[in-house]
Amino acid sequence: MRVTVVRNQPEAEIVCSLLRSEDIRCFHRPTDFAAGAFDGALSSAGAREVVVSAGDLERARELLDAQVEEEL
Fold first, then answer.
1. Distance between CA atoms of 70 and 61, rounded to whole angstroms?
2. pLDDT tens digits, residue range 15-66?
3. pTM of the complete model
4. What share of the chain is helix, strand, coil (3-state, %, to 5)?
5. Of 38, 19, 22, which is closest to residue 30 (Cα–Cα)?
6. Closest residue by Cα to residue 28 from 59, 10, 51, 46
């Protein structure tokens, strides 16, 4: 289940690192947002979605929401 969409691969790595530190398995992959906009560019360019299992979705969202609140 998609938990969030971020701007690029480095941001997706940061999000996954946070989730994994809480024992939530995740991965990220390119989205189809603006499909073709980065043809020929590095694979790290463009939006990426972070995906977790359905059973971890609620907890993952809570962790990410808490992180955003801390940054504000």
1. 14
2. 999 999 999 999 999 987 655 555 555 555 789 999 999 999 999 999 999 9
3. 0.81
4. 45, 20, 35
5. 38
6. 51
Q: What's the token pair of residue 24?
A: 């939530």
On whether the CB atoms of residues 4 and 49 are closer than 8 A, the answer is: yes
What are the strands, taking DSSP E only, across 1-72?
2-6, 26-30, 48-52
Position 3 pLDDT exceeds 70: yes
d(CA 63, CA 43): 27
Task: Write the CB contacts of 54 (distance below 8 Å, at least 6 apart in sequence).
Answer: 1
The sheet with strand 2-6 has its strands ordered as 2-6, 48-52, 26-30
